Input
Amino acid sequence: MQFQNTLSYAQQLDQNDPLKNYRYKFHFPKVNGKDVIYFTGNSLGLQPKNAKKYVDEVMTDWAELAVEGHFQAEKAWWDYHERFSEKLAPIVGAKPSEVTVMNTLTVNLHLLMVSFYRPTKQRYKIIMEEKAFPSDQYMIASQVRFHGLSPEEVIVEVKKREGEHHFRLEDILQTIKEVGEECALVLMGGVNYYNGQVLDMESITKAGKEVGAFVGWDLAHAAGNVELKLHEWNVDFAAWCSYKYMNSGPGNASGCFINEKYHNQKDIPRFEGWWGHNKERRFLMEPEFQPEPNANAWQVSNAPILALAPYLASLELFEEVGMPALIQKRDKIVAYLEFILQEIASEVGGDFEIITPKERGTQLSVFLHGQGKELFHYLMKNGVITDWREPNVIRLAPAAFYCSYVDMWRFGQVLKGYFS
Ligand SMILES: *Cc1c(COP(=O)(O)O)cnc(C)c1O
Output
């Protein structure tokens, strides 16, 4: 495709964008009285305008029905979380029975480790990527210590090669092969938060299963961003937060995938609570736990309805648009952003190295050679919201739902302004 770095060309791309009206379904912060150019949907998605209505509904039900809201509210609370399964299933490529929503991401990874990290004398190692998101590093190391083992002996990190910014699939597969029968678990980020790389989850899952390990994915940067086929790939478990590409609101609930193979397994270790109990009998307050025959068996506490409400609002937008349309726009707008970066770099003689490999989703991570943090502050002051990662990287994620091609062009103009 032959892009052009002009306003009229960007406007034409917007005109032809089937998703062009969706940006009006979101609230944009303003800087200098103008909507910002929002590149941080990978960190906190914008608020869907409908979210408030969904929260208000719960507030009204609570005011008018109080405890009766559990059963009498139009969207009753006792099974409120079940409304998510059908909507989340196509986003992550799962059967509805394999998906649930509960707690928050790191908490869910801990709960899933209870079921899927069961070290023995022979099989106890965990494979992950180096420099994983810090919470994942803390979570995994603390799980290892919980089992009385030492993180240094258990955790095997796949490393990037000297001078490279991305992981090589062959290195990951080789590590899995080498660890072999000692490998208890492969647990990695499906999309790397730092460089935006999309891992080949299908091949890695296959390799992990071949050595007899469990395979789980942290999909924080993948859910709502890239195509996922968790069931077909034979993934054992996965979890994701919903406040990044899923636009559910700050710190909001996490989604979980648990392969149906494990749903009725009697002896699977699991931390249990009453919301995982057979839902027809939940309020009989029986002494013995009878798990739900699906991913809901991993539920612990009664669901935080006020938090779930905006997530539901967001999911209705996903349901309306569907991942294929989002992915189609994603690829085009990211390619246009890449083009704009190259154009501006050549105009101003700058060196913006895109360290995101070609296996990418929405995010471009850009190494700003020769530039300091002032450039980042300048962008923020001029209404371009990005984020900064040491030593010298800005991450740009033009979310397909609400970013426009004109945003990309305007960003180029702001960036150019810094150098003139
Ligand atoms: C954002 C993110 C988290 C955040 O975890 P919370 O429990 O929601 O705070 C964890 N892991 C990865 C890979 C992330 O990108």
In short: The chain has a mean pLDDT of 96. The first helix runs from residue 7 to 15.
